[in-house]
Design goal:
alpha+beta, six-stranded mixed sheet, 6 helices, 18 strands, 23% helix, 22% strand
Length: 382
């Protein structure tokens, strides 16, 4: 099946969705929150949780046997279970806008805001520095600004050192939002996004926060497991990664140096490096029911398994949400099969893009090198 990226090669290729990041770095912090904002009427949703240590909110509500079908935003956050508080800020802001599940008269709504979190506690130096409701409100405001609707959203009150990643028509990738404090197999993790357009014009897109116990790198060669799934458009807009340059096999000396650095970092780290979780959203503009959205998320986990090895361990809480904005017709069985195939592909590509865009960081808790700094020859620099 031919792989074709959408116009922005991001979750924004699904009309009606917007993405906002908020993060805090310094003073003990290395964490953040990412919000996917849905259209005013919401998006049909499902979820699939595979990891052995998940931190989630409202996933039971998304069971196809239950009442609610649509959600109004999805929160992805650092902070482990503490980070679920970020969803409170999103919920309150949406309530103020009158967006939510109708419960009675005008304004009597309950916003439906599922969430999933990943472990990054202590990586900035302070184990108690984690996202709160203000992070969620700020990330939602960033999503509104990115969609050109800043006037509809009230920005949350920030603290000194808080930063927001905002740009119109572009989803910042790498060490931002919920990806700020992430790691994968000892390297810096991050946020990545990618999209695919099927032959009939249907779009399937993913945004993934990569934070895993397993490795994104083949330890025998230094190559990224998922790199073979990239398309040409995936190699642009990735920070300092050279535009258009496909990852190459690193030289053996870099692989040995990376192994030694990882062993040293693990030996002297005061922060648990064996707790992780990869989380994300897969979305489409097709008309799906909640069960089909859950199935879209299920196929996305296949994409995780192509980018990280091992995946879905007892120390990961790997969780994916499936969203449908229902702007296009309901797919027939063959078209839905193609969507599921594409779901796995865009998740893999988004995860690789996250690694290529990530930046190295040193905090009081330790150093996490980016893939490009650990393996500079992979960029063609020898």
């Amino acid at each position: 099946m031919e792989r074709t990226a959408g116009l922005t090669n991001s979750l924004l290729d699904v009309p009606g969705l917007a993405v906002g990041h908020h993060q805090r770095v310094g003073d003990g912090y290395l964490t953040g929150t990412t919000v996917v904002r849905c259209p005013p009427e919401g998006a049909v949703a499902g979820a699939d949780v595979r990891g052995g240590a998940p931190g989630t909110r409202e996933t039971d509500l998304l069971d196809p046997r239950n009442l609610v079908e649509r959600v109004h935003a999805v929160v992805l956050s650092g902070g482990s279970a503490f980070g679920l508080a970020a969803a409170d800020g999103v919920m309150r802001e949406l309530y103020a806008e009158g967006r939510g599940f109708p419960m009675g008269g005008p304004g009597e709504v309950v916003p439906i805001v599922p969430a999933a979190v990943c472990f990054d506690l202590g990586r900035g130096g302070d184990f108690g520095a984690f996202p709160d409701a203000g992070f969620g409100a700020a990330a939602l405001a960033a999503a509104g600004e990115a969609a050109g609707e800043a006037g509809e959203y009230r920005a949350g009150q920030g603290n000194a050192g808080d930063t927001g990643a905002r740009s119109v028509g572009v989803v910042p990738q790498g060490s931002v939002g919920a990806g700020t404090g992430t790691q994968v197999g000892g390297l810096r993790g991050g946020v990545g996004t990618a999209s695919g357009v099927l032959a009939d014009g249907t779009t399937v897109a993913a945004l993934v926060v990569v934070n895993a116990v397993g490795s994104a790198v083949d330890l025998a060669t230094g190559e990224l497991w998922g790199a073979r799934h990239l398309v040409a458009e995936d190699l642009d807009g990735l920070g300092d990664w050279p535009a258009g340059v496909a990852p190459r096999r690193p030289v053996p000396s870099e692989l040995e140096a990376a192994r030694s650095a990882a062993a040293e970092a693990n030996a002297r780290s005061s922060v648990p490096r064996s707790l992780a979780t990869t989380i994300g959203v897969i979305a489409t503009d097709a008309t799906l029911d909640p069960a089909q959205c859950a199935r879209l998320a299920t196929s996305g986990h296949d994409g995780m398994a192509r980018a990280v090895n091992p995946i879905h361990t007892m120390f990961d809480g790997d969780s994916l949400f499936g969203l449908a904005t229902c702007g296009r017709e309901r797919p027939d069985p063959a078209a839905f099969h193609a969507m599921l195939h594409t779901s796995g592909e865009v998740v893999t590509r988004a995860m690789v893009r996250a690694l290529l865009a990530a930046e190295s960081v040193t905090t009081p808790a330790g150093t996490w090198r980016s893939y490009r700094d650990a393996f500079p020859s992979a960029t063609g620099v020898r």
